């Protein structure tokens, strides 16, 4: 729980790796993930991901991104007009859907009752 808490705090402090100093904390985030990986009892995390297994997949559910080093995601924070809110991955074997919520950077200047969120959904059929 302590490692998870530290990773969550790191993600909040450096905007999931998007922040200005996120790259400086990349190694710490990777180290925390590796430490948690060693403690994980699951030996076949992708079991059932293709939807052919009778058992449910350990990955099934909705996952929220707390840290990233993926350049294709880090790119989103360089847009001058839009800012990243939440990024989720919804896993319902055999389908995986990436969900990215964006809002205009100028949102604070808009009326508070105006819904300005954009949602991007990209789905793919999973294979093991």
From TrEMBL:
It is found in: Plastid. It comes from the Eukaryota. One of its GO terms (cellular component) is plastid. The keyword Plastid applies. InterPro entries: PAP/fibrillin_dom. Keywords: Plastid. It holds the Pfam family PAP_fibrillin. The keyword Cell membrane does not apply. Residues 2-104 form the Plastid lipid-associated protein/fibrillin conserved domain. This is Plastid lipid-associated protein/fibrillin conserved domain-containing protein.
């Amino acid at each position: 729980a302590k490692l998870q808490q530290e990773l969550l705090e790191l993600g909040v402090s450096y905007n999931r790796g998007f922040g200005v100093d996120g790259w400086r904390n990349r190694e710490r985030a990777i180290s925390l993930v590796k430490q948690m990986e060693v403690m994980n009892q699951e030996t076949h995390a992708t079991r059932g991901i293709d939807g052919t297994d009778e058992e449910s997949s350990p990955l099934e559910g909705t996952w929220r991104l707390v840290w990233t080093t993926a350049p294709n995601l880090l790119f989103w924070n360089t847009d001058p007009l839009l800012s990243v809110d939440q990024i989720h991955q919804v896993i319902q074997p055999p389908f995986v859907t990436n969900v990215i919520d964006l809002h205009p950077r100028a949102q604070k200047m808009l009326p508070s009752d105006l819904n300005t969120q954009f949602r991007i959904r990209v789905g793919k059929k999973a294979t093991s």
